[in-house]
Amino acid sequence: MKRISLTQYLIEEQRLHNKIPAELRLLIEVVARACKTISHAVGKGALGEVLGSAHSENVQGEVQKKLDIISNDILLEANEWGGHLAAMASEEMETIHPIPNRYPMGEYLLLFDPLDGSSNIDVNVSIGTIFSVLKAADGMQAPTEADFLQPGTRQVVAGYALYGPQTLLVLTTGDGVQCFTLDREMGAWVMTHKNMEIPADTQEYAINASNARHWQAPVKRYIDELLAGTTGPRSKDFNMRWIASMVTDVHRILTRGGIFMYPADAREPDKPGKLRLMYEANPMAFLVEQAGGAATDGQQRILDIQPEKLHQRVPVFLGSKNEVELVTSYHKPK
Ligand code: P6P
Q1: Which ligand 1 atom minimizes the distance to the CA of 116?
Q2: Are residues 57 and 171 in the same domain?
Q3: CA nearest 316: which of 200, 156, 207?
Q4: Nearest ligand 1 atom to alpha carbon 117
Q5: Ligand 1, from 58, 130, 241, 245: best to mutate by most atoms within 8 Å of Cβ?
Q6: 57: CA distance to ligand 1 center in Å?
Q7: Which atom of ligand 1 has the smallest separation from the CA of 119?
Q8: CA of 145 relative to ligand 1 center, distance in Å
Q9: Are strands 204-206 and 259-262 parallel, antiparallel or unpaired?
Q10: What is the domain count for the chain?
């Protein structure tokens, strides 16, 4: 089967749907190239002196790994000169990163978690980069944080790179979800899966079960029913997976179905869960919906949430549509 490259896919999408202006195509290709560089750095591991802690904390108060900072710098340096962006925002940076005055300013806003799942870096478990693209408001002069606070429905592109046994790039521009595998010999992203689809039903769930005693009642009820298996109300057995790397858990769900949950819990009642809306939940929700799945915060569609802060957190239930709808229904008062 003749496989096509990322560039050919983007050019054909532009020709067919006139939805990917040249600047947006450039943005996607630059991010994809930066992910190749990150993959190379991640792959060196201990040989590259890139493992371990950077002995600094990010805006979330989490200890940063050296590769978190390296990946963030790679994305900043790759994207700031191209003239396609007005500003960037990252999990690793407290404030937004406007394009330096020495470069032309574009009309897009790029948000990213440069290396998600970084607790897995030092133990060689798959990790990834998550990215989301919004359009800046027409006529915007100096970008501010407020320009980023758009609901997820306004995303024009979302995707992730997965640094695992294969290096993958999974992308949506609003016309389905496409998967590209890095041909390491050629250095090219080659399409290996077109129009990924999530089955509406599943027998596999992903949650950090060590938090069970902290869960709220609707989550407890839903998980207890899964655990009851064929003898319970679901009349079927379920399997559990938790890789503690959102990109890897979500990729499994895009590939074979499943439901991923990171609910709010009683450990920190003022924190609505662990995952961030703007550069984790929103891009993943866009991808999952484009693949026929669903994504809610337990109450509403994640993509409909009006953000209030750049680094705000949100509970996440995403994946196989029928399961997400069921667990969400348990959160609704009767
Ligand atoms: P826990 C990784 O740190 C991350 O942000 C996601 O990639 C992952 O799904 C989650 O946190 C894992 O959290 O509490 O199980 O370590």
Answers
A1: 7
A2: yes
A3: 207
A4: 2
A5: 245
A6: 16
A7: 3
A8: 25
A9: parallel
A10: 2
> Residue-wise pLDDT tens for the chain (334 aa)?
689 999 999 999 999 888 899 999 999 999 999 999 999 999 998 898 778 888 888 877 778 888 999 999 999 999 999 999 999 999 999 999 999 999 999 999 999 999 998 889 889 999 999 999 999 998 888 999 999 999 999 999 999 999 999 999 999 999 999 999 999 999 999 999 999 999 999 999 999 999 999 999 999 999 999 999 999 999 999 999 999 999 999 999 999 999 999 999 888 888 899 999 999 999 999 999 999 999 999 999 999 999 999 999 999 999 999 999 999 999 998 7
Using the mean position of ligand 1's atoms as its centre, give its distance from the Cα of residue 245 in Å: 6
The CA distance from 289 to 291, in Å, is 5
Q: Mark whether 159 and 298 lie in a shared domain.
A: no
- Could you tell me the distance, in angstroms and rounded to a whole number, from the CA of residue 268 to the centre of ligand 1? 15
User: Of 193, 227, 245, which residue sits at a domain end?
Assistant: 193
Q: What is the DSSP letter of 229?
A: G
Whether residues 218 and 279 fall in one domain: yes
CA–CA separation, 157 and 77 (whole Å): 20
Report the chain's C-alpha Rg in angstroms: 19
Q: DSSP states of 185-226 as a string?
A: TTTEEEEEESS----S--SEEE--GGGGGGB-HHHHHHHHHH
| Residues 226 and 160 placed together within one structural domain of the fold | no
Which of residues 164, 193, 222 is at a domain's end?
193
